[in-house]
Each structure stands twice: as structure tokens, then as C-alpha cells.
Amino acid sequence: MIVVMRHDATEENIRNVVQAIEQCGLTTHLSKGSEITIVGVIGDKSKLSKINLDLLPGVEKLVPVTESYKLANKKFHVGSSVIKVGNCEIGGNEIVIMAGPCAVESKEQLLETAHAVKKAGAQILRGGAYKPRTSPYAFQGLEEEGLKYMAEAREETGLAIVCEVTSIQAVETAVKYVDMLQIGARNMQNFQLLKEVGKTNIPVLLKRGLCATIEEWLNAAEYIMSEGNTNVVLCERGIRTYETATRNTLDISAVPVIKSKSHLPIIVDPSHATGVRAYVPSLAKAAVAAGADGLMIEVHPNPSCALSDGPQSLNPDDFFKLCSELKPLAEVIGRSFNGHE
Amino acid sequence: MIVVMRHDATEENIRNVVQAIEQCGLTTHLSKGSEITIVGVIGDKSKLSKINLDLLPGVEKLVPVTESYKLANKKFHVGSSVIKVGNCEIGGNEIVIMAGPCAVESKEQLLETAHAVKKAGAQILRGGAYKPRTSPYAFQGLEEEGLKYMAEAREETGLAIVCEVTSIQAVETAVKYVDMLQIGARNMQNFQLLKEVGKTNIPVLLKRGLCATIEEWLNAAEYIMSEGNTNVVLCERGIRTYETATRNTLDISAVPVIKSKSHLPIIVDPSHATGVRAYVPSLAKAAVAAGADGLMIEVHPNPSCALSDGPQSLNPDDFFKLCSELKPLAEVIGRSFNGHE
Amino acid sequence: MIVVMRHDATEENIRNVVQAIEQCGLTTHLSKGSEITIVGVIGDKSKLSKINLDLLPGVEKLVPVTESYKLANKKFHVGSSVIKVGNCEIGGNEIVIMAGPCAVESKEQLLETAHAVKKAGAQILRGGAYKPRTSPYAFQGLEEEGLKYMAEAREETGLAIVCEVTSIQAVETAVKYVDMLQIGARNMQNFQLLKEVGKTNIPVLLKRGLCATIEEWLNAAEYIMSEGNTNVVLCERGIRTYETATRNTLDISAVPVIKSKSHLPIIVDPSHATGVRAYVPSLAKAAVAAGADGLMIEVHPNPSCALSDGPQSLNPDDFFKLCSELKPLAEVIGRSFNGHE
Amino acid sequence: MIVVMRHDATEENIRNVVQAIEQCGLTTHLSKGSEITIVGVIGDKSKLSKINLDLLPGVEKLVPVTESYKLANKKFHVGSSVIKVGNCEIGGNEIVIMAGPCAVESKEQLLETAHAVKKAGAQILRGGAYKPRTSPYAFQGLEEEGLKYMAEAREETGLAIVCEVTSIQAVETAVKYVDMLQIGARNMQNFQLLKEVGKTNIPVLLKRGLCATIEEWLNAAEYIMSEGNTNVVLCERGIRTYETATRNTLDISAVPVIKSKSHLPIIVDPSHATGVRAYVPSLAKAAVAAGADGLMIEVHPNPSCALSDGPQSLNPDDFFKLCSELKPLAEVIGRSFNGHE
């Protein structure tokens, strides 16, 4: 950390800052410039947690120079993490596709979708049993019944299954059924929930919050990892901006940024990012070309009758076509895409 | 709701849309223009929840014309709501100030602050016992011990107390101590938590999410109210934008917008909005002049040693001075400010 | 400036950085920490303009510690600037109101408005003769004819006049008529135009760009001032965010931030900030309470027939009422408001 | 256009609205719902420009149902536009690369870069002679001297050349030298400048404004096209958001959105979008995979000595490597990439 002093800071101000830091057991380095004086802080800055340096007289601002996340940080980890979910691996050479309906609506709808996405090349079935909805009057999900259908779909197809959890109670139930727990965008900073999934040994798909910075997102991963569960996969799903032509703005740059800052795998969800079915294939290809380790795509057998997010769901034929285009694209950039026939 | 048809929609497309709507038990009105045809939908649109009209062939887009929240909506409520918290009323003529430390750190710190803010004119003591923090390595709060200190401070000073709850477990504990439950910005769409506080009969302070629209915020209030607890007070605390000169951007317009759309009271938190102590008095006055029903302000006896958010906390002297300026300001716009000596 | 080295930077990397800086005639200070090394740069950093330090091997990032604007900077200027426009002063004790129609439409419309705003207490008449419009098919302004009407309105009422200029040609014409030149939000980084108004000796009202940071805004002021014209008044008019309940989001915090960073006066335009007439009075009062030096408000004799921005214009009666409320508000915070009868 | 009436609008309010519309020579359709009445407006809505419908008593809001741009609109144009620049075509099957330095610094720097980018596969040389810079103290460009070097580089290499113009004077000079005029992000709503390039017959590269919506961007294209010059190519270069890990946020969704709304070609500039050299290749591939018609990439022979935007420039080797990866990627998605050896 660097302490930048005000241009009118006195010698006494500077001495006080140095003293305050050193009393916490840290070392300082002084740089006196013509306009400004800077105090470098050397050592473990968590020792400073008892004082607010920026409130000492003469202090202009503090500039952090190291990230606050450790376990998720690439600097302290050799190589990239590969997370095993069911029989597939995320973060390795293969592009992994998670597909399925936004919400589980019935056993028939789910099984029909599961067979279709498996045939196209998906390896993980997604399906929401606990749905966070903006309005309390919208469909809220089938809850445990939905999880049971998901488990049945796994039996029938061999696909691994991922489901969102929205409360500690939902975690307790879901761990009995699923291969991967999903933390949705709205809960990315529900720290109690992050700690709870961190206590399980089930892989976690951590969606980026609607207006979370990449730094906050990696700190959310840190919450899970610091409880012992290091099997975290990140999912970029669009951020909120002023543009209204799409539901959210897919931050495609998050792919190379995460690859440079963290060892964790990252996948992309073009369905929630745009909210518009017609734009999904274009963005799915962009994500793979950018270096994402996988995709999460909404597929519904009859999008015009979906109870949730129909406008952004592909039908099985469109999804099959997309996968047939993704396979050669993955190969030309040196990745594999095994599922598609 | 209005269905706008594509300019190349066929007669058959239009017939299908009309038919689909009428099969749900609703009435339609057709407007055929030179360029475009519009289908007006008349009746309770929740009956349409089983179909996705925007996916029918020929449909360009749907335009909602009514809000999805009902209980929080000014249209369906006569007059403004006044919420009683302890002995004070929020939403009436009086400006109500909630003040205190970001986090409860010790009994001494809390009591010292409580006496100071009471003297200056605050009527409600704030203090965090459960702290949502970006990094898992930051101070997380004293939990139930903190709530006990808050209750003691109430005994000593007569101030009502408000505390944030971050989980269902925290709600269960907090209801034994507090006069008002606070839902923080990060949990504004933690729908399980909203429902839980909606089942209590304790007033709720609902902070706006970091990137929540006013519509989403009122829908979050609707979650609480639809469980039976209509004692909701809204709190604007800054939204996330590209500007970095302040921690967040105080959306002062939210005050007149909420007053035009809802009957619920609204207060403003200039401390979290700016993150900078020096800007707090200016924004506190702006909020009162704009028509806010109250303020939430962080006060700490020794901000340079605060464990959380020190840089934005006022010391007791600054807070006293601010209140002495707010009193005549409140009066000149026709409100009262009773506490200040 | 501070150069933060990567945690894996070698001794040679560090030596190279130090050498590169010193070859530019600057001095360095080294701080070697357990995790990271920092190089402080001392002296005039414009000497570094020939090298890109952040591209040297081993460099993590550069952290600027001083602002790039000098003439607009409070640090290098004693006291606050007071800008004289016609007979009134902006930045002194008095709150100055600029009011008038968005666009000059006819002589009658303008004169009627001018008399009305003068009576209510405005000291400067605003009126657009050159209108920047999103669509090329919208009304573009009366150009020089509009300026002539403005000058006539000044003769009749004694009000000073301010008009927007959108091109160098418009500046050349406008200087013959107006007391103050306005640079609109869309042209805040039209640097040729900034330089051109900087060559005149007429006061400039510089509106903040739709998504300009405060730092960029002050740099835009610097462009004008560096050409010799230091008579710059800043105008906050709302920034672009994700919220759609208002046309823009008024960044009320800009008032105390500018007051802390610059000596230039700042006024607020609540009409463009919200785009909704009903919200204007609330925000006008908030701006004065926050410490703004004045307001710019759209007034039209018949808003429902305005050719531009009618929905946000007040009619003369509403404006009169607002001014009668602003007068005691200004006085209670220690300012004066002289015009209102 | 649709007029939504307030739920408490009277019969008289509705009659007045209908009458006002019909007096402008338009037709109306009334839809009376249980909660709300809607008035559909049929015919050319520019006839309504003399009245502000939303200010008539009882009106809740206006909902536009058609776009304000016509010439740039896909609805009124058969097929996609192909724009010829020098000997290459943008918007056809081939991916076109524009590359070169941010700023022209010297003849040597430019020629070295021109040969390098030609060898790698670029078809158009970019190079700034007029530089819009945030601070007036930063390097502002070589102006006409820079244009001459650009023309020399064209002679030597056969590459077409594109240069930014920042004022009407710059347009007058540039038309004598360049094959394509560039309008930069900061000038996207400099309407005088748009009209001026619209009067030339030289193709225009129109960059998206820092916080422009796609609708505003297409309206800016409309300004150029409505003056007679329909040779417009759009360039997505990142928008401003709260995320600071990259300089801007590349809105990759703009590619499919523009393809669905307009017939104009779209290219992507990953250099300005991220501001970080290491992220450029990932985003360049993403853009091509998403369906962009080309790329604009900054290349500098010695990025660590560039006078402008060095940190985001690729060196010639990195650029050659990127092009060698883009070629098979383009082919696998059915496009061609001819230049690369």
C-alpha cells in the first residue's frame, strides 16, 4: 500500500503517518517529491486494520498495490485449475457446454430438453428449481420437486446437473441431488450463502453480480474458497450498463482479464447477457474465440411457452446448429469439443 | 400491455396473436397503422403468464404500461404512509435522523456515540452487528453481542435502534432486540431474506441495491409487503456509475421519483453514497431540501480508528454542527426537526 | 507518479525503470517491500512523455498522484473565482438563476419568457439558437436570427444572455451578441471548439459531458483556460447511468467535489438532468442546499407547444413559485437571492 | 407512436388528445382497458413536431414504436451494404483489418509500421494526425504533415489510409489525402462535423461514442447519410461502464445488434476498448467470431516509446502472430482473410 500525502502536509503530519504504520509492526519507505510526499508501506497490510490511515491529518489518499484475494489469485497458484463436475472437466482443453431450461417446469419438459442438449453436445444439464424473480407475483420454481426431476434426467442421460441455490435451506436440500451448485448474479455478495456452499465439497458455479467489478467477483470466490471448497468456476453473464438494446452488456473482456488474474476457469452465459435469442449464437462463438472454458446456454423445447425467460431460450434445433458451428471453431483455436455427434 | 407487431407481420401473424391473448381470457384492441399494427391487451395480464407473446411469429416487442408492484404503488393507496419506529414517525412532517457507527465495535464506543447523536438530534441509533464485507478477511461484526450493546444503548438513551440483517438466522436473532430491521444494498434482491422480514411485524429499512432500478427497488418492497409487513421505509444510498470521485453516485432524483410513484417514506444515506466525510454535510442538506423524510448518517467517536468505513464517518462535533444547520433548513421548507437542542 | 513493479520483476527490470526515468531528467525513490517494489518519480512528469513506462519489462502499473489540470486546480489558486456575466457575478454570495426556453422559437415566445423569468428573479436569459439534436430530422434552431432575438430580449429586460455554440462558425457569430457562451454536454470534448472559445474573452458555461468524469470535465475547462480565457463556469446537468426513471442521473455530489478540487463556480441544470418537469423544483432546491452557485432552468410560456424539450420545461407560474421557495432557502444557508420580488 | 393515458384520465382528457393528434392530420385508434386507455397514432409522426403530446392533461407517457433513423435502417434497405475503401471492400465476405499507430509521429515510424502491417495482412493503414487528447498538455498530432506521411505510406505499400478528423478545417485538409475519414468517439455527436463529412464522397468510419446507445449511433450515421454520403462503416470501440479492469467495456453484443437493425458494416477496435495490449488478441478473435466485418488494431514498432496509447499497441511481431490466428478462424466461420501470407 502507498500513502499519498497532501501537497500541504507538514513534516509533523508525515512523521505521524510513519509512526502509526510502524506501531502496527510494519516498515515504511519515504519518497519526498517536489510537489508531494509518498509513504510506502511494507509488510502484511492486514495489520493496519485497526487504524484508518486515510483519516490522519495530511493524508490525500491510499493506493492499494496488491489484490485482497489470495486463494483465487494466479500469483500464488501454479498453473490453471481444472474443476471436475460429474465426468467432465472444466478448465482443461475441452470446451464444456451447460444447457437446459431457465426453470424446471415439468418432468416431461426437462427430459425432452435433456435428451436434446445431450445429443447436441452438452455435458451438463442446467435447470432452475429455485428462481429469484424481480416480482413476488412471478413463478418462483418447483423447489425440491424440480431437483428430483433434474436427478432423474441425469439417470436417463448421463449428463451432470447444475442448479441454482438461493438460500442456506436450498443448499441443504440441493447437495443431496446436484453435481454443481450455482450462485446466481443477485446472490454474488450474499456472503452467508457463499460461506455455506464453501463448506460443501461440491463444485460451485459463481455468476458475476449485475454490477460487480472483477475484483469483487474474485473476492466472492475467495469467500467460498476460504471455507475449504476450492472448486469454483466463474461465469460471466453480462453487466448492467446504460445500453438497452440488450438486457445486459456481455463483458467479453472479462475472459482475458480473469485468465490474467486468476487460475480459476471461466465460462460465459450469452443467454442472460443479451436476453434475446437471436443474438445468442453470435456471442457464444465470441466467447469461445476469446478463450472461455465453456458456455451456459438456455434451451427450451417450446420457448414461446416457457414460464421464465422464454425470449432468450434457443429451441433444440437452433441449439444443435450452434453446437455444430462451435465444434470446428473450438478446434481451430486449439481446444476440443467432444460431445457433438 | 401493448403488443407491437413487426412491419412485415402477416394478417395470419396478427390473427394468431389476437387468438392467443383471447384464449387466456383477455380482450384485445387492434390498431392498424400505415407502417405498423399494434394489439392492445385489456384485462389482468398475469393471465398471460403461460405464454411468451414476444416469441410468436411477427411480434416485434411487448410494451408494459402498468407497474408490476401493487402494494407499494401510490396509485392504489390513499395518502402517504407514516411508519412508526419506537417513538418516532417516518414519513410525517418531521425529518428523522438515524445515526451511529457503521459497525458496533465495543460497548464503550457505542454508548459514547449514542449519547452524542441523541444530543445532536438523532432519534434512531444505527449500528452494524452483521457486516457484509467484500473481502472474507475483513472484520465481519460482533453479531448477537453487538445487538445486545445496541439494546443497552436504547435503554440508556431512549433512542430507537436499527440493525442490518444478512441472513434468516440473523433475522431470528435480531427480532428479539431491534426496533427496525435493515436490508442492505447487497441483499436487496435476496428474496428469501425479504420474505423472512416480511413475516415479522417489525419496520424494515430497505436500502436500494448498488445497481437496482427504482422499479426493482419497489418490487423488492413488494416482496416484503406481500408477506404482510407493510412497514417499509426506503433508503437511497448511491448507485454504481463510472464516476470514481465518490464511492457511489447519490441518485438524488430518487427522492421526487419515489414520492411520485409510491406512498412509502424515503430517507437518504449520504455517508455510503459518497464514502467521503467532507462531502456528507452538503449531500445531507441536499436530501432534506429535495424532500427526503430523513437521513442515515455514520458517526464514530474516533473515525481514524473505526474498524469499518472510517473515511465516511463524521465525528460527534461535525455531526452536531450538521444537525444545527439542518434544523433551520427543514423549517424553511415546511418540515420540523425536533431533536436538536 | 508511482511505478508499481510486478511481484516477479527482476533486479534488472527495476534498474531499467530507474534508469529510464533518470535519463528523462527526473529523480527516483525506491521502496522495496516483501511482495512488491515501488518506484516513486519526483519532478515534472511531462518530461516522461517520450516513454511509456508501463511497457517496460516488469512494470505492473503506473499510479498518478497529481491531477493533470493546473489552471482549474484549487491547489494553485487562492480563493474562489467569481465570474462576471453582464451585471451579475457567479461564484460570489448570490445564487444566480439562468432561465429561458430550450430553443428560441420566435421573438414573441422569447420576449414573453424573458419578462416572466426576470420577474421571478432570474438574472440571465438562456435560449438555444444552435440546437444539437440526436436525429437530423428534428428542429435544429434559428441560428443567427435566434441570437438577434436574444439580444433584443436583453435590451428590453436588462437580463444578460447565454447561448450554446456548436461550431467554430457559431462562435464567430455568437460573440457579436451574447454575454456568455455555452458549451453543451455533447461538445465537452470537442477540443477545437474549446480552444476557440478560449481565445475569446467572453465567459464560458461549460456543461459536463454525458459520461464525463469530473477529472475530464476539469481538463476540458483547462483547454479553455490554457488559451487565455479563465472565465469558466461549470454546469452539472446529469450523467448517463442505467436508471431510466429520469432522462439522466443528476450527480449532486459533483457540487461538493468541484468545490474541493477547483476554484471555478458550479451551477446545476435540473431540467436536463431529469427530463421531467415535476422533478425540477425538488432538484433545484437540492442543488442550492448542496452549495451550487446557481441554477439553469428551462422555462417556456406554453410547454405543450415547445419545439424542443417541452416535457422538462416549467411554465412561468411554476417558475415563479419555485423562485419564491428558493429565496428563503438560499438565505437560510447564508447565500442571497436578490432578484425575486 | 402510442399514447398511454394515466389511469385517472377523464373522458375529456382522452378527447383532447385524440383531437390534437387528428388536427395534425393523423389518424387515431382508441383502446380502452379496465385500468388504462391507449391511443394509437397512425401516420407520419413528424407531423406531431409542433405539439408536446406528453404534456397534455391525462397523458402518462408516449411509447415510440418505430426508429427515428431511416437511411441506416435495415427495414428500408435490401441486403447488406458493402463499402469500397481504396481497393478493398468492407461488409463483403472478407474480413478487413485496419492497423497502424495511434498517432503519426514521424515518417520513419509510419513507414516501418506500414510495411509490417501490410506483411501481416492488413489492407488499410490507420494513423492519427489530429489527436483529441483529454489534457491540453498532451501531444496533439502532426496535423497536415502527418497526412502527408500517410499518403507517402500509401504510395510505398499500396495500403488504403484512414485518418481521424476533429474539425471542419481538418476535413477540408484531409479530403486531399485520405481514402477514409474517421469520426472519433468524442465527436460522434458533433453534428456539424457529421454534416461536413456527409457532404464529401469519401467513406466514413464512424466510431461509437463513449456512452452512446446503439440508437444514437445509428442516428449519427443518419446525419452523415442524410447529407448524401451513404458510405458509412460503424466501429464499436468500447463503452464506459463502472468496470475499471479495462479502459472501456467492449460491447461485443453491438455486432449482432447492428446486424439486425442496420445494413451498414461494423468493425471492432479491441485496442481502444481494452487499453491493454495483452487482451487485444483475445478480443480480436471474439469480434471476428461474433460476425464483425473487420478490425481496427493499433500497432507501433516500439510501443514503449509511443507518444500516444502505447500500452494498448501491439508490436509488429505480435500483430503478425494475431493475423496468422485470425486467418483460419475467419475461414472456419465462412469468411475470407486474404492478406496474410
Automatic annotation (TrEMBL), chains A, B, C, D:
Q: Which GO BP terms, alphabetically? A: aromatic amino acid family biosynthetic process
User: Which NCBIfam families does the UniProt entry name for this protein?
Assistant: DAHP_synth_Bsub, PRK08673.1, PRK12595.1
Coiled-coil annotation: which residues? Answer: none
Q: What are this entry's molecular-function GO terms? A: 3-deoxy-7-phosphoheptulonate synthase activity; aldehyde-lyase activity
Q: Does the keyword Transferase apply?
A: yes
Question: What name does UniProt use for this protein?
Answer: 3-deoxy-7-phosphoheptulonate synthase
Q: Which SUPFAM superfamilies match?
A: Aldolase (SSF51569)
| Enzyme class, spelled out | transferase
Q: Which positions fall inside the DAHP synthase ferredoxin-like domain?
A: 1-67
Keyword annotations of the record? Transferase
Identify the species of origin.
Defluviitalea raffinosedens
Domain named DAHP synthetase I/KDSA: residues: 88-323
Q: Which InterPro entries match?
A: Aldolase_TIM (IPR013785), Class-I_DAHP_synthase (IPR052899), DAHP1/KDSA (IPR006218), DAHP_snth_FXD (IPR041071), DAHP_syn_2 (IPR006268)
E.C. numbers: 2.5.1.54
Short name of one Pfam family for this protein? Answer: DAHP_synth_1
